[in-house]
Amino acid sequence: MLARASAGAGLRTVLVEKRDFGAGVTSRSTRLVHGGLRYLERLQVGLVRESLRDRERLLREFPGIVEPQAFCLPVYRSDSRPSWQLRAGLALYHLLCLGGSLPPPRRITPAETLDLFPGLDRRGLECGFEYFDCQATYPERLALEAAMQAAECGAEIRNHTCATGFVVSGSRVEGVRIESSSGTDELRCALVVNASGAWVDRVLGRLPGFHADSLLSLVNGTHIVVPGIPGSPRSAVYREARSDKRPFFIIPWRGLYLIGTTESLFTGNPDRTAPTDCDIAYLIDETNQLFPSARIRPESVLYAYCGSRPLLRSSTGNLQAISRGHQVVDHERTDGIQGLLTMAGGKLTTAPTFANETLRYVIRKLGVAPARPVAPIPPPSMDGVPPRIARIYGPRAPELLRYLQQSHGRDLPLVEGCETTCGEVLFAAEREKASTLGDILLRRTGMAFDASYQSSWAREAAEVAGTHLGWDRQRRDSALEGYFKELSETLRDR
Ligand SMILES: Cc1cc2nc3c(=O)[nH]c(=O)nc-3n(C[C@H](O)[C@H](O)[C@H](O)COP(=O)(O)OP(=O)(O)OC[C@H]3O[C@@H](n4cnc5c(N)ncnc54)[C@H](O)[C@@H]3O)c2cc1C
Q1: Whose CA is nearest to atom 49 of ligand 1?
Q2: Atom 27 (ligand 1): residue with closest C-alpha?
Q3: Element holding 415 (H helix, E strand)
């Protein structure tokens, strides 16, 4: 988002990403674009307002990728929080999004709640509340789309390019050293912004002689994905977990159900986060308590994933109490190092505000006036775009549809039983900077997440993409090997 804002302001911008756009924590999230209802309990009204403003902005600027999602809060007589308190909280939540586009919350009777969720535990059910937030079905594509729009504004965007160190002169950072399949190089620039999310402390660790305290506390969260919940609800459920009162979501997602999440402090490498048996058992148990007829078992889980929340550093043991806010760190002020800013903390939802705040710092530090005004990107017309294409490709959908029509056979399924077409695989490789099968199956088409996914899809994608990318047989085999390794590291049990 920062690259998009900065290139939009006319600044010469280069974005380097060591894996692929959206491959980091963004791809491991609950995939919600939300105000954060529960932050109200902690009186973080400012953060909620900001998040709600960003929710509206993302909804407007990334139609299809960000869509409204109905939620239901079932209330039981035994709950510690009375229903009037929830009603008041939801009313405030709605009010804070002044002029927002989503419907207001409403109280629903136990019968209406059970109509929505036939399998819900009905013992002691007092009522339900329906309210709206948003879902980003593919935050991976949200990140990609932001990068592509940055490129359209003149930025240079490079995935599979790692910043391996800094170019330093005295106490000034003058660029970064980079490494990619084409070798190593140096990028010299007036200002470096470390926007590496959960990796910011590791990246700073590459500055010679840098010994400041870490900026983040990493808190791991696991999700499981299951094919069915009794009654196949279309609303999402939001509940406090019975065992530990943590927020707990069951969300309809691409015809499946996404269930999460857990919270545990993590001090390891965010490249290596994996769901534990204990996390999975917790999520299964909580779901079965709320939907007794679900009878989810470990074998029902299609796959699970885990990621590290990059939260601002805190010494509290209460992980829920750690701020979900963000901070721009100017290392000249904090550590006497010029030419370097770090973006610490933040949420997927607040990425637009965080980007704009950082851009203001950048402009001030560079002492330049933006060459052109930062105009909001007009949303494209999504008229006539099939729902599946709209949900995955968002603003890129009209371009994809034109591409599919340009040549015979592009609109045919990649493999029988697969909704993704050959043309989508080609589009990813030709127009969307995909260069590995993981880029294509996990972060462009999302095929790897489908309920009916088969490994044969990957083999066919290797043939189609390989022809375009000029891969010989050996290159196709090694691409497949790399993909299966990445898949097993990304989605447990896939
Ligand atoms: C379990 C969980 C649930 C969440 N749910 C939500 C939610 O529902 N809604 C919400 O708003 N937020 C949610 N979040 C938070 C949200 O996902 C993150 O705050 C957000 O995705 C961070 O975006 P980012 O771009 O800063 O980080 P990332 O997406 O992690 O991007 C940082 C990138 O930097 C790259 N990188 C690292 N080191 C280097 C290097 N040396 N050189 C080049 N590139 C490098 C990485 O590969 C990575 O792709 C959740 C987080 C977790 C873990």
Answers
A1: 24
A2: 197
A3: none
289 burial (CB, 10 Å; 0-12 / 13-18 / 19+) is middle
CB distance 16 to ligand 1 below 6 Å? yes
Ligand 1 centroid–CA 279 distance in Å is 20
Q: Is 26 in the pocket of ligand 1 (CB under 6 A)?
A: yes
CA-CA-CA-CA torsion sign (305, 306, 310, 311): positive
Q: Which atom in ligand 1 lies closest to the alpha carbon of residue 25?
A: 30
H or E element at residue 392: helix 387-393
How distant is the alpha carbon of residue 102 from its chain centre?
A: 21
Do residue 126 and residue 146 come from a single domain?
A: no
CA-based torsion, 245, 247, 251, 256: positive or negative: negative
Say if CB 461 and CB 270 are below 8 A apart: no
Tell me, in angstroms, the distance from the centre of ligand 1 to residue 23's CA: 8
Domain end position, chosen among 114, 136, 158: 136
CA 37 – CA 405 distance, rounded (Å): 43
Question: Are 399 and 480 part of one and the same domain?
Answer: yes
- What pTM, to 2 d.p., does this model score? 0.97
Q: Whose CA is nearest to atom 15 of ligand 1?
A: 347
Confidence grade of residue 376 (pLDDT, cut at 50, 70, 90):
low
How many domains does the chain divide into? 3
The model's pLDDT over 70-129, given as tens digits with 9 standing for 90+, comes to 999 999 999 988 999 999 999 999 999 988 999 999 999 999 999 999 999 999 999 999
- Which residue range(s) make up the domain with 438? 392-490
pLDDT tens-digit readout, 56-86: 999 999 999 999 999 999 999 999 889 999 9
Same domain? For 415 and 480 the reply is yes
H and E: helices and strands count for the chain? 15, 18
Whether 147 and 198 share a structural domain? yes
- Residue 187, both tokens: 């990028």
